[in-house]
Amino acid sequence: MTDGMFHGDTALITGAASGIGRGIARALAAEGAGLVLSDVNQEALDDIAGELRDSGAEVAAIQGDLSGADGHGTLFAAAKQAADPISILVHSASPRRHESENAAAVTEAQWDAMVNTNLRSGFFLARAAADHMRRAKCAGRMLLITSQHRFAPRNLPHYSASKAGQVMIIRELARLYGPHGIRVNGIAPGAIPGGGFSANVEQLNARIAMRRTGTPEDIAGMALALLSERFSAYVTGEVVAVDGGLALHNWIDPPHLDE
């Protein structure tokens, strides 16, 4: 693979086997980054790892489940064995969500899996990565994929609460590790088909200023910009909305409760 903007970097990407994580993995590989890819779905993970190796990228693939108590520790230990140093972390993993998991019905197990993956594992994985980057004295960059529902209710309280919490993780880590040359930012995607929401796309498009839902490639482009030392070397602690103007509308109605 020819040199690119991220030649010499190695990126650990969670949730890399599908959707936004996969889109970011492809974009970073195209710009010369080495990759350590992780996902809970082994088959899908092997597919994207093989695709990117065929394109010329250096890729390690680690199956990992971040919904438990220490999946983050196991994953990062394996990632360091696969590649050292790791200069980029992208946390895109999130359990698939179902519309039935609203505030009246979400179970404790569903809550724990969502919050553990998005918030608990997100924080401890990012902190471990930051300490690793600091010791390696590299220009570390971290990116958390949050959501427009960090502010707006989603009818999925475990999802919205964890995405809101990610914003403060970004800010706390950016403040602590900025003096060590490590930048921490986030992206808040809008409606990306396949991301776990159920909606009439035609009706939804009418509520989006740009009149279309988004794609993983839309998110990947902003990810490259925020992770780049060429374009965003002075940006940290920020969450950038990539939603085509969806946040200008309240597009999800509340659930109906039985009498």
Explain the layout of strands and helices.
Layout: E1 10-14, H1 19-30, E2 34-39, H2 42-54, E3 59-63, H3 71-82, E4 88-91, H4 108-136, E5 141-145, H5 157-177, E6 183-189, H6 201-205, H7 216-227, E7 239-242
Parallel strand pairs: 1-2, 1-4, 2-3, 4-5, 5-6, 6-7
Helix pairs in contact: 1-7, 3-4, 4-5
Q: What do these coordinates show?
A:
By secondary structure, this protein is an alpha/beta fold. It has one domain (10-248): Rossmann fold, CATH 3.40.50. 40% of the residues lie in helices and 14% in strands. The chain contains 7 helices and 7 strands, in the order βαβαβαβαβαβααβ. It has helices at 19-30, 42-54, 71-82, 108-136, 157-177, 201-205, 216-227, and strands at 10-14, 34-39, 59-63, 88-91, 141-145, 183-189, 239-242. The protein has a 7-stranded parallel β-sheet, with helices on both faces. It is globular. 48% of the residues are buried.
Provide the descriptors you would attach to this structure in a database record.
259 residues, alpha/beta, 7-stranded parallel β-sheet, 14% strand, globular
